[in-house]
Amino acid sequence: MISENIQRTILPNGIRILSEYVDSVYSVSLGFWIQAGSQDEEDNENGIAHLLEHMVFKGTHKRSAFAIAHEIESLGGIINAFTSRNVTCFNVQLLHENLAKGVEVLFDLILHGRLDPHELEKEKRVICEEIREIEDSPHDLIHDLFIQQLFPNQAIGRPIQGTVESVNALQVSDLKRFLKRHYTTGRFVVSAAGRVNHEQLVKLVEKYCQDMGNGTDYQEKDSCNTQSETQKIYPKPIMQSQVILGRRIFGQGDSRRFQLGLLNMILSGGMTSRLFHNIRERYGYVYEVYSFSDLFLKDGLFGVYAGSDKNRLEMVIDKIYNEMTVLHHKPIPVREYKKAKQQVKGGLVLAMENMNARMSNLAKTEIYEKQIITIAELLEIIDKISVEDLQELARYLFDRNAFIETIIQPIEP
């Protein structure tokens, strides 16, 4: 059931438009979501989705890079973008009376970018510095290494930002081909939340979308069931060992994702969570330890990260597996289960006070669910999760035979 404040329109060309009216604010958060990310790249295109996201900000046929930012910032607004494995999102936050300007600027970005060769060479240098920064940050690097190990030799496992070599090989013609192939009406979702008039938003999208190519609905690439190496160790000149223990799991469309949110909360949701209390507080073995998950359309991953002195790494790994074993075999106490529910529900409600979060929630449920799930419906789903549901998920999730280990080890002096 869709709330009376949430409206959804599908244009004849396939563009999906969603809005949520919130009368307690005077702003609007607007997002243009393209269902094209690093997973849609060919073998010779690694990093192109992220590079294209950067390049459209370098200027259009009617605006310079400075003018793009100035037109939004001079209105007190914010303009930004990001690339993930499944989507690229361009978004603005503005006073509600400036919605038309936001729509026009975002369409100008995604449809009329100059893609100037000189600017491309400069931006490739910028992204190469971003890549080097990640490689110099073990905490960031290990997440890239983990997903590469989990999904070897396929687009979903490659770094979103690409490599220095792959980015430097990309040319303007490659960007234009990727844009033409993926920036199409069937892959396009417009989402807005705040003091927004849905009919006005639909008319604005209809006005400015004429130059967008038509295309069929998004179809995610199937990942290969390539066997992952059980353990990979990467020596680096660093002071602390980094480890991720993890596995492949179900995708975003699986109903168990709600239970997974609760299980993650029990494992690492704050200072009273199991990983924090039993590994950091009880033994002092780590500064940071947490579980995480990332779900795509068809596939997903689950992992536990920790950073530790290399001489205590094996003990930390054993303690992490022990926490998984306990959850696998012992039902979660009712008091802990109820607390986790309240934490998850409280986090959702607090997040929804942010219009950008509401806008993102609308788009993501449309993209991944093909329907809208309101916050009230989401809270109801969480309320219905039982201890037995969590126990069943833990039995599936914590199968040690399904886990891999990605480790960055300090180089011996």
How do the strands and helices of this protein lay out in sequence?
Blueprint: E1 6-10, E2 16-21, E3 27-34, H1 48-55, H2 65-73, E4 78-83, E5 88-95, H3 99-111, H4 117-135, H5 138-150, H6 164-169, H7 172-182, E6 188-194, H8 198-208, E7 231-236, E8 241-250, H9 257-268, H10 274-281, E9 286-295, E10 299-308, H11 313-329, H12 334-351, H13 355-369, H14 375-383, H15 387-397, E11 404-410
Parallel strand pairs: 2-6, 7-11
Antiparallel strand pairs: 1-2, 3-5, 3-6, 4-5, 8-10, 8-11, 9-10
Give the neighbour order of strands across the main sheet.
1-2-6-3-5-4
Low-confidence runs of at least 5 consecutive residues: none
Beta-strand content estimate? 15-25%
Structural class comes to: alpha+beta
Cα radius of gyration in angstroms = 22 Å
Question: What is the number of beta strands?
Answer: 11
Shape: globular
Distance between the termini: 62 Å
Structure, described:
This protein is of the alpha+beta class. The protein contains 15 helices and 11 strands. It has helices at residues 48-55, 65-73, 99-111, 117-135, 138-150, 164-169, 172-182, 198-208, 257-268, 274-281, 313-329, 334-351, 355-369, 375-383, 387-397; strands at residues 6-10, 16-21, 27-34, 78-83, 88-95, 188-194, 231-236, 241-250, 286-295, 299-308, 404-410. The strands form 2 sheets. A 6-stranded mixed sheet has the order 1-2-6-3-5-4, with helices on both faces. It has a 5-stranded mixed sheet with strand order 7-11-8-10-9, with helices on both faces. A hairpin with a 3-residue loop joins strand 9 (286-295) and strand 10. Helix 3 runs parallel beside helix 8 (198-208), helix 9 crosses helix 12 and helix 11 (313-329) packs across helix 15.
